[in-house]
Design brief:
Immunoglobulin-like; 1 helix; two-stranded antiparallel sheet; 242 residues; 2 domains; mainly beta; twelve-stranded antiparallel beta sheet; 7% helix; 14 strands
Length: 242
């Protein structure tokens, strides 16, 4: 996808919901068809995409529901679901879908895709993978800005360093006034796509009010901790076994 075109459409989406919360903001980042939104009696032309994402295929993929941590109750998000599908032996497609009023969220501005630390400080979607028989694991962060991060650990929060990536994760956004969805196609390095894995899918949701909520398939006792072994509750089959 042309990065400048992606940037223009993301800015259009942000501008539209911040200037009066339009009635309809349908898939503004990617593709080439037009949509019209009405706000305060004025018509606003917005670019939208058709068929550039996998939303129409979502029911055919594995779908999981994330749970909000009980210590970080949220008032603006109705639910967050996760769908995934292996595209080939090393390529994993993910879709994080949040039912939420768009104008309630604190979303980062679009930026050119590159590896960036600290993405979890605002709205961010995450993936953790661990071999069933090993203590090492890896962490991926995906930002609505299209920035990303990938780390590897030798044990629980130990030995952290950047995980080498041969391909930049491809991140696309799907927005309306009542939902936010992030899709990413992730090329997994080394053996991470070749063996069965324990997986943890999670999200940090930042609200314009300043509140944050933490979402995962399951949570350990105490404060939110996506690195905890209790969060690795989903068995992800090896791509070659599908």
């Amino acid at each position: 996808m042309n990065l400048l075109l992606h940037q223009i459409r993301y800015i259009q989406a942000q501008s539209s919901w911040k200037q009066g919360h339009p009635t309809r903001l349908h898939r503004l980042i990617g593709g080439y068809s037009r949509d019209h939104s009405v706000s305060g009696g004025d018509q606003i032309d917005n670019w939208s995409w058709r068929g550039s994402l996998h939303a129409a295929e979502e029911t055919r993929n594995m779908r999981l529901d994330l749970q909000c941590h009980p210590l970080t109750p949220v008032s603006v998000v109705d639910e967050i679901s996760l769908s995934y599908e292996w595209k080939d032996h090393e390529s994993l497609w993910l879709r994080y879908h949040a039912e939420v009023l768009l104008h309630d969220l604190d979303l980062p501005d679009w930026k050119e895709p590159q590896r960036t630390d600290g993405l979890w400080e605002t709205t961010c979607f995450e993936l953790f993978l661990q071999e069933s028989s090993a203590s090492r694991y890896c962490e991926f962060n995906f930002s609505p800005s299209t920035r990303w991060a990938a780390y590897q650990f030798s044990g629980y929060r130990d030995g952290m360093k950047n995980l080498p990536m041969s391909k930049t994760p491809e991140i696309l956004m799907d927005l309306s006034d009542s939902h936010v969805a992030l899709e990413v196609t992730l090329g997994l390095p080394d053996i991470w796509g070749q063996v069965p894995l324990n997986a943890s899918f999670s999200a940090v949701i930042a609200e314009n009010s300043g509140a944050k909520s933490y979402w995962a398939l399951s949570h350990p006792p105490g404060k939110p901790d996506f690195h905890h072994k209790d969060c690795f509750s989903h068995q992800l089959k090896a791509a070659g076994d599908l």
